Amino acid sequence: MRMKAAVEAPGRGLAGVDEAGRGALCGPVFAAAVVLDPECRPPGLRDSKQLSVAARERLAELIRERACTWAVASAGVEEIERLNILHASLLAMRRAVLKLRPLPERAFIDGLQCPKLPCPSRAVVRGDSSMEMISAASILAKVARDAYMCELAQRYPGYGLERHKGYGTATHLGRLRRLGPCHEHRRGFAPVRRLLAGELL
User: Fold this and answer.
1) Where in the chain are the domains?
2) Which of 15, 115, 177, 178 is the most exposed place for a label (fewest CB within 10 A)?
3) d(Cα 21, Cα 66) in Å, to the nearest integer?
């Protein structure tokens, strides 16, 4: 389905949905849902990973100002451990869509699977780089999670969370070896699990 056909659909609108933080070793997974206004779309929407921090933050502000409706939600580390990261990501997506007012007519989900929703949905592989509504959701989710990880860095200093945002960088792994995991580390993820088992990272 082409991007133009999606964003110009009439009625309550179509929502783009994406997550951020699925591959991180620490912190919640975030998700956002966005219904863009077809008459007032922010220019330059693209996959959040292709944007600089400044560009993401500028676009996030425009999206929040111009979208018909938007929402951000998350699933915490306990839920990630209990459900696994895939189902926790789907849960965060579901929560984000359910917070939209009004609910969308249809939702387009980045990836291979859709969460259970009260509206029809469609999974779109690499949707964050091919559909503006999903790009907008990826930006909101990324910006919200990055801000949360900076807050988390104040609670758990020493890991450098404000820089790597919980992903498995060499710096993060080195700090994990020295400090051990904090409460927000995902113990089911291999590097953290290996550390707890006494193996070298």
Assistant:
1) 3-156
2) 178
3) 25
